[in-house]
Amino acid sequence: MNKRIAGIALAGALALTPIASPTASAAAAAAYVTVKSGDTLGGIASKHHTTWQKLKSINHLSNANLIYPGQKIYMSATSTSTTAPASTTAASSTSSGTKIVNQAKKYIGTRYVYGGTSPSSGFDCSGLTYYTFKKLGKTIPRVADAQYRSSTKVKTPKKGDLVFVHDSSGHVYHVAIYVNSTTWLESERPGKGVNYYKPWSKSVYYGRYTVK
Questions:
Q1: Is-contact 52 42, C-beta < 8 A?
Q2: How far apart are CA 5 and CA 68, in angstroms?
Q3: What pLDDT is attached to residue 59?
Q4: Burial class (CB in 10 A: 0-12, 13-18, 19+), 167
Q5: Which of 61, 166, 168, 186 could form a disulfide bond with 176, CB atoms 3.0-4.6 angstroms apart?
Q6: In which region does residue 56 sit, left (phi positive, over 0), alpha (psi from -120 to 50) or beta (all else)?
Q7: 68's torsion region: left (phi>0), alpha (psi -120 to 50) or beta?
Q8: Which residues contact 24 (CB under 8 A, 6 or more apart)?
Q9: How far apart are CA 155 and CA 122, in angstroms?
Q10: Is the predicted pLDDT of residue 120 greater than 70, yes or no?
Q11: What DSSP string runs through the chain?
């Protein structure tokens, strides 16, 4: 084969070499997406060229509408097992803190009612925590200050711990459930019922109750 023919053959071979799609490569490179405020599972799925149903299955989500800021949404079953070993995921899903948050988030959308202690009547802040623990088989005091006093005090909060907001004299007047450093789950105030909220006070104590 002369040099001209060899050159044409080589050029033809190079032309037939498949080139990976930049978009597909970028999507494959993202092992997970960290949920930001305003994100939806459908929106995340669209950006990564997949379906919300697939992401719901991969991430073992019971409700596709209940994702929260700071949560990691894995793009594939492989990335889930690589980034978060199955044993760790299984242990986390059954931990006390996860059970508390999973129970409380069932009441998202319930209106704020002072003195309320049930989804049908509405919740105030401590009514939500009282009812959540009651459904998990644990009885805690009814009001925020008493809940703090009987809890195990902690300095570094974990998922499912209680956040107690206090005034300048140290008196506790509000309680929320700690989800992560940027998210509380609470029945905040009139007009703002049970939902995920950004931390709105630094005058806080942390307390812990555990459930089986």
A1: yes
A2: 61
A3: 72
A4: exposed
A5: 186
A6: alpha
A7: beta
A8: 49
A9: 31
A10: yes
A11: --HHHHHHHHHHHHHTS----HHHHHHHH--EEE--TT--HHHHHHHTTS-HHHHHHHTT-S-TT---TT-EEESSHHHHHHHS-HHHHHHHHTSHHHHHHHHHGGGTTPPB-TT-EETTTEE-HHHHHHHHHHHTT----SSHHHHHHHSEEESS--TT-EEEEE-TT--EEEEEEEEETTEEEEEEETTEEEEEE----S-EEEEE----
Residue bearing tokens 């999507």: 27
* Sheet strands side by side (includes 172-180): 152-154, 204-208, 162-166, 172-180, 183-189, 192-197
Tokens of 143: 């009001």
Which two structure tokens, joined as six digits, stand for 11?
Answer: 């050029």
